[in-house]
Design goal:
single chain; two-stranded antiparallel sheet; disordered C terminus; Glucose Permease (Domain IIA); alpha+beta
């Protein structure tokens, strides 16, 4: 068996022959196959790695883009959160201010809220009480019938300036210049409007109000309403004068409950700012029954105090 083979090489110098063993041939062939396979594997690996690098780069760019978008969204979200926090802070200030104002209203109308009571419940409670207050002040005499300038003669016993004797003064003589406008102090029907010689009040207006109340306006110069008509709180009814048994221009203002005179000055002072005061000082009137009787009535357009009515100073007596 021949284990050799001949390799012939032709070049410019002639022909050269080499005898090689078959083992070398096989080794060379295997090495060539191995290197070829290794080369193919290397090329495939390089191509695969290159593809993976490109894919990773694409993925990186996408994630970077997503991250940038996320940062922008976070920025917008933070801006929105900051704006919301600022609005919430402003709303809290408004609620604190509202709560403080509501506390003043609650104090004004005489209610004490339960601790930790929700604001809405406090508002509802105050609304109910304020509606009752508005109704009472609309239908029951309250406030001054004229621009307040003081009292010249109080309610109660006095020495009559004309009759020169001690007698009970059923009203308050309110200081006023001639022809000062006189206004109704509550909704009413005009019971009398004209000259009333018997009483000594001269030109007189008597208003009949709800729930047993009457008001009398005496010594008038001119009456501008007629008997049998209806007037609302704040309507002009007359002008002050010096008619009847009077020593000078003024308004005799009288308040009656169930035909009995009560101190009118307490009603002159009565308003939303001192709403509860009259309940404590005027004991002749069943206030709780009145409040219950008017609780279902709602005044849609309450009458505001007349511009001519000035704040009444504290009373120095009854």
């Amino acid at each position: 068996m021949n284990n050799h083979f001949t390799v012939t090489i032709h070049d410019d110098n002639g022909v050269k022959q080499y005898n090689l063993h078959h083992f070398v041939k096989q080794a060379f062939l295997y090495a060539t196959l191995f290197l070829g396979t290794l080369g193919l594997i290397s090329i495939g690996t390089i191509v695969y790695l290159d593809y993976q690098v490109d894919a990773i780069e694409v993925k990186r760019l996408k994630e970077q883009n997503d991250f940038t978008k996320l940062q922008e969204k976070n920025k917008d979200l933070n801006s929105h959160i900051q704006g919301t926090q600022e609005k919430l802070a402003d709303k809290k200030k408004e609620l604190d201010k509202m709560s403080h104002s509501l506390s003043e209203i609650e104090s004004l109308i005489g209610i004490s809220p339960i601790e930790d009571m929700p604001l809405q419940e406090r508002v509802d409670l105050a609304k109910l009480n304020s509606e009752d207050m508005v109704t009472m002040l609309q239908f029951i005499p309250s406030g001054s019938p004229i621009k307040y300038m003081g009292i010249t003669s109080k309610f109660g016993y006095r020495h009559h300036p004309k009759l020169k004797r001690r007698e009970f003064h059923r009203g308050s003589d309110m200081k006023a210049k001639m022809k000062t406008p006189v206004y109704a102090t509550a909704d009413a029907m005009v019971e009398y409007a004209g000259y009333h010689k018997k009483s000594g009040y001269g030109r007189l207006v008597i208003l009949k109000h709800n729930y047993g109340f009457k008001t009398l306006y005496g010594h008038l110069k001119k009456v501008v309403i007629k008997s049998g008509t209806f007037v609302k709180k704040g309507d002009l009814i007359a002008y002050t004068g010096n008619s009847g048994m009077s020593s000078g221009p003024h308004l005799h203002y009288e308040v009656q409950f169930m035909s009995r005179p009560v101190n009118p000055f307490r009603f002159v002072k009565w308003n939303a700012q001192n709403y509860n005061e009259i309940f404590e000082k005027e004991k002749k009137i069943p206030w709780q029954s009145l409040i219950t009787a008017t609780a279902h009535i709602k005044v849609l357009k309450p009458t505001r105090a007349q511009p001519s009515s000035l704040p009444v100073p504290p009373s120095k007596g009854k």
